[in-house]
Structure prediction request, 431 residues.
Amino acid sequence: MDPSIVQQTFKAAPLTTEFFLQGSVMENSLETLVNRLKGLCDNADYQQESFQDHEMVFHIKNTSVPTPLVFRVRHSLVQTECWSLRYLGHAEVGDKNRPTLVRSYIDCPTSENVAQFIGELGFRMDHEFVVKGFYFHKGRMKITVSKFYKMNQPGNTTNDTIETVCPSYLVELSVVTSSGQEAVGDDMKNFAEQLKPLVTLEKTDHRKIQLAQT
Amino acid sequence: MGVVCVFACPVPEGKSGQQVVDGLQKQVEMMGATKSGNFLVDCETYQSNPQNVTQTPQQCVVNILHNSEHPASCFSVTESGQILVSDLLFEDLMSKLTMAKAGRESFYSQRKGFKIESRGQRYEVGDFIIKIGSVSLASNFRGILIEVEYCPCVILNECWNMMKELLQSMVGNSAETPPPVLKHKPDTVYTPSDTILQYLDHFNNFRKAVSAPPPSR
Prediction:
């Protein structure tokens, strides 16, 4: 394929918007939820796919305003060659007619030296964590069921140095697409209905969580 | 993907860049090379905002390059030579760094007039790929770069003598020794990042020479 066509294809409709819903389940409900998801999602006859990732959150600051820009470096602890540099915008609730949260989302695969590279750009690591769980697909929808672990030793991701943040699992239903694809929200809302009452996936206003923390 | 060497081709006094490019293309076609499209390697430069809170006071400069040979990739190089190979989405991440928001300066800004590129014809002959590029800095012609790739080999030391013979027939004695970027790693596996570092080395040389009048196009 002509290289200029490949470049134009990649640039024409960048997938940089994420529509998502969030909920949580306690540990004792995990198996039931996973079984329900296996039944509803694609590739039901395969073993569900699991992941173990290490994420480092980096900030770059500017003296003109205290709010830093946040980039995230994420890599798999299982497939150690898979590294990515991510940006997540603020989640917008929008009006009550919109069924999902929306945020700017950029997930860029990179070479393994990404943490050193952004360090040279002026980023400094703020915190890091490990996240483990399962993921499922239904068409272009992705569903993850994840547990978060804090790291007691910087840079050390072995099981004996990490501990759970809380006993529940975060359940996220998301679609990453180009901006303006509002119709995807209805498909997601319909799918979320099928997971009730096991888990209630809804638009959580992140500003309320951030205000509660301050 | 093989071993790639990039050399600048001198433009003699009294000749224009286009005449030299035409001459090189005729020479390559006489060897039996066939045209296989166009190529483009380009570079944009960004510099950090002095108001960024960093551990070192020096300004950070990052060059972002693209190579049509790897159309889905983006290569970002810092001044220390740290090179990040990534998807083209990295440019969207860079735009977050260069975007000024209400009440806040951007973290990085593009250096105006620094965009430089090598563009031209791509040829294939036997196991070689030859690219003859005209270099433009802010739309002004600055020189000619020849790229020769020997595809079956990935170690420079194992094919340098053969590449040197081909290169010297095109660029003369400037191809007496391997490119400076590759001199300290002649026995390591060659990667696309090495090609980018060679182009960046040449682009920086062309940029430094910008105070001299450009050769005639």
